[in-house]
Amino acid sequence: MSIWRRLSSIVDEHGAAALVALHEVKGSVPREAGARMIVRPDGAFHGTIGGGSLEWELLREAGRALAQGRGPARFVGQALGPDLGQCCGGWVNVLVETFDRRDAAMLEALARAEGEGTFTVVCSVGPEGRVDRSAHSFGSHSNPLPMKGDGKKWCETYGARAAPILLFGAGHVGRALALALAPLPFAVRWIDPREGAFPPHIPTNATPILTSDPEAEIVRAPADAAVIVMTHDHGLDLAITAAALQRGFPFVGLIGSATKRARFERRFRDLGIPGARIEALACPIGLPGIGGKEPAVIAASVAAQLLQERERRGASLSSPPQAGPEPLHMTTLTPDDHVHLACAVALSREHMERDAGGPFGAVIVRDGKVLAEGWNRVTSTNDPTAHAEVTAIRRACEAVQDFSLSGATLYTSCEPCPMCLASAYWARVSRIVFANTRADAAAIGFDDQLLYDEIPKPVTERLIPTIHAPSPEAKSVFAAWDAKADKIAY
Ligand code: ZN
Asked: Which residues of the chain have pLDDT under 50?
């Protein structure tokens, strides 16, 4: 259910609406935090926070709030148990808010953001006791607003993630495909190197990218993107398709005949692309059995193929996990991961805007508890090691009075540089989740490729002249440590 779209239309039609959300949950509860219900002034409601007496109690609370008119948000703590006729033994903190036509612009902005895909808002309670959601921090948004408020903050996530597509080529078929994809749950990056290639009106789920380096888009695309290649130039088709196959996206489609495929296949093999990836290439493109060559027909067929692919992957995601050395949550993202990562991203923006340093933020979380936050403070503290992750690691260790953060996850707005990565290993962090890649960082002037290149070099070949000067005293300190009976190993 689209929360903000529905709230917006109910407020428009009925003058007011209440939003009831499970804000925090502990123990055994019928639904997860973030479960939401929308209540109309006439008592009708959409969604569920788990049913039972709790739901009826909260519907009454929403009715009371609506009767009093637009006012401060209410937090209602409620233990679940026999007195509520509920068999669950947990506890919930429920947020009840009311909206009326004065909120129309805010509701519309959030509805639009929700329509574009997943997004997270950083929330705080404003001066009138109402929830301030002006800080979009994550997901697709065209005009992010600055963070506000220093009080209690939390994150909320809304919207279904649109499946990412890279569409190369804005010719007749590319244009028809962009139109066919317009109403579908896809987020399209539409790439063409030619000035004037794009039509004047672009679907809202498509972002036109005019670039002379289309292959760079392959490098920075999310790993689960589908890639469709239909440019004006065979050479470009070959280069882009090869780059996409090399990166190993789950779906790569190329427009063209079986003859074109055979010719390209030889080139791909010469480039050393694994045979299985070449075989999986969709070329000719589109669903089998649809032979029409009109751009709109090809477009409909490819759009259907992309939907089929999306469902197939959705099905494989929900199949039982394979047995392995690591629990599933170590390598898959949970809704909580998205929230903590969004907080790290929000920190990066907030402190960049306050001129603390570069645009980087980090959060360290263990067992659902935030141990520390960090952001880049290099230029404000003249500390070249004050990267966001190092700052967060220092603060987290201070907070837990331990040099080990075993069991913790490091959320960072950007892939850690070698120093921060090493710090995470030294701190025994169990998991790292990042948003921007090091390629993204390199593109805005933070290139740590040099460091990656330096590490494997022999000492004598490094850029900073490094000289080995043996010392008996240094050796004897080591021997003393080795023999020290009360040492604390780390
Ligand atoms: Zn770093």
From this structure: 138-151, 315-329
Tell me what pLDDT residue 63 has.
94
Nearest to 106 by CA among 144, 69, 124, 132: 132
Strands 163-168 and 226-229: parallel
Structure tokens given for 274? 């694994």
**Measured on CA atoms in the order 311, 313, 314, 316, is the torsion positive or negative?**
positive
Task: Kindly give, in sequence order, each residue whose CB lies less than 8 Å from that of residue 97, ignoring residues fewer than 6 positions away.
Answer: 18, 19, 21, 65, 73, 74, 130, 131
Distant-in-sequence, close-in-space partners of 466: CB < 8 Å, separation ≥ 6: 459, 460
CA of 462 to the centre of ligand 1 (A): 20
CA of 417 to the centre of ligand 1 (A): 4
pLDDT tens readout for residues 153-176: 777 777 766 788 999 999 999 999
Q: State the pLDDT at residue 489.
A: 81
Q: How far is CA 181 from CA 120, 205, 281, 411, in A?
A: 24, 8, 20, 33
Task: Enumerate residues 6+ apart whose C-beta is below 8 A from 131.
Answer: 73, 95, 97, 123, 124, 125
Contact between residue 389 and residue 424 where contact means Cβ atoms under 8 Å apart: yes
* Ligand 1 center to 390 CA (angstroms): 7
- In the reported structure, the alpha carbon of residue 444 is separated from the centroid of ligand 1 by a whole-number distance in angstroms of 15
Predicted local distance difference test score (pLDDT) of residue 80? 76
**Backbone phi and psi for residue 236, each to the nearest 5 degrees, phi listed first:** -70, -40
Catalogue the active-site residues: 389
450: helix, coil or strand? helix
pLDDT tens profile 41-69:
988 888 778 777 888 889 999 999 999 99
What distance in angstroms lies between residue 418's CA and the mean position of ligand 1's atoms?
A: 7
DSSP string, 4-34: HHHHHHHHHHHSEEEEEEEEEEESS-SS-TT
As a whole number of angstroms, the distance between CA 399 and CA 408 comes to 13
Supply φ then ψ for residue 175, to 5 degrees: -65, -45
- Residue 124 has what pLDDT? 83
Q: How many residues does the chain have?
A: 490
Q: Could you tell me which of 217, 161, 162, 216 has the C-alpha nearest to residue 188? A: 162
Q: In what order do the strands lie in the sheet with 226-229?
A: 206-210, 186-192, 163-168, 226-229, 251-254
User: Residue type for 401, please?
Assistant: Q
